[in-house]
Amino acid sequence: MAQTETTPGTPAVPDAPPGDGLKRNAIGTFGIAFLVISAAAPLTVMAGVAPVAISRGGIGAPVGYLAAGIVLALFAIGFMAMTRHAKAAGGFYTYITIALGKTVGLAAAIVAVVSYNCLQVGVYGLFAVQTQAMLSFVFGLNVPWPVVAFAAIAAVWFLGYRGIDVGAKVLAVLLTAETAILAVMGVGILAHGGAKGITIGSFAPQTMFSPGVLAILGICFAAFMGFESTVLYRREARDPDRAVPRATFIAVGFMSVFYAFIVWTVIQAYGDSGAVDAANSQQQGMFFATIAQYVGPWAEVAMYILIVTSVYASQLAFHNAINRYVYMLAQDGVLPAFLGHTHPRHKSPHRAGQVQTLLAAVVIGLCAVLGADPYQQLLIWVNTPGIFGIVGLQGLVAIAALVYFRRHPEAVRNRLTVPLTAASAVLLFAAVVLIGINIELLTFADAVTNAVLMSIAPVVFVVGLLLARWLRRARPAAYARIGSTEAHDGSTEAESTEIHDLA
């Protein structure tokens, strides 16, 4: 049986049996970009969360999104340099394992799975709330939120089961529609000259470096969640050596500029002196009222509908990413082997998808029985540990990349790669600290609840370390396979492109 290409320090693992692998050559650069941008849900993070950023961060809020984008772009430079050379397809934990060892790698894997599930399952609360609002505003219907959430779970499972190429096509349509409605709003505001003329006060030095902007960095980083999952689609990508880096830089570049532009235009809609008061008084209704005023009532109705499809697109994208993470872990022998098989026809990791769907249904059912608030408890509280976990893992991957570059200097094609990667590691861990200091901006919860939410990711990491040590003693064969899954697509190293040259 053919063996996969190996990276120094990782054992070879057999290819999946014929007909039991992921679908090859299924998506290209923009298909991957659509998947990861959809996971971030631009319309949702703008209409649903950006008013909070304006309320707490002031008119400098657009700078917060630009700052988060710059830090993540620095991270992507080192991350993509490593993935092009190591050719790993197992997500963050594979890269951490290659550089920092199997014990830390398994701990990272468990944190990643828990964090992505927190992000995906929690957002069903937002889907329920936004769909309720849409049904009430557009059709005058009042549907219980658990009914909406369970319907969403079924719809997400169905497209995830059908395969990555089907899901990518749907996400392309939905993402285009949601970004278009935001762009229409922004252009409408600028065409009308805003409330008091167009200003650039948001980018004045005294505004850019105000304490409020630092305080909302957690909100801004949360708006990019999922962009790093481009590497999970390496096995299904056409020309992965080019497609994965291109998709990563397209995703982070588009989101940072687009988010900053939209938030800045909404500030113009109320003027520098009135934007904060409008955000405080209107809250989640701010964007809907803005588009109704500057574009028309039809656009408000369209935004209500499209925000529902935006959340659905986010759910589908995260569902696909989680399934591939679990699939890779199962192939590595860390999770039960039955999860490491794909559908014979659709080539989707359908068993992993079934387990993830069941988990979401159980959590939604418990929240419904306990009378939890779908926005506060299900969305905010369940999402918060996921944000801590993913940003922390990004910092750990940056450190892993530095260690890898020291061992494999041939992976570095530009002398700026190492210092920029080091800067990203420092900045990402600083972001984790700032998120912790300002956690009440995310949760609006008491001190005890916030302490519990902040402790989940570190506790899971420690549990992962202990599990790895136990595996090393009790199941050495399983321990030896941690992080061993490598991409094996038969392609040759691609020539450098402009984006590759950044790394």
UniProtKB/TrEMBL annotation:
One of its GO terms (cellular component) is plasma membrane. Keywords: Cell membrane, Membrane, Transmembrane, Transmembrane helix. The chain crosses the membrane at residues 32-53, 59-80, 92-114, 134-159, 171-195, 207-227, 247-267, 301-318, 355-372, 378-405, 417-439, 451-471. Residues 1-20 are annotated as: Disordered. GO terms for molecular function: transmembrane transporter activity. It is found in: Cell membrane. It is a multi-pass membrane protein. It comes from the Bacteria. This is Amino acid transporter.
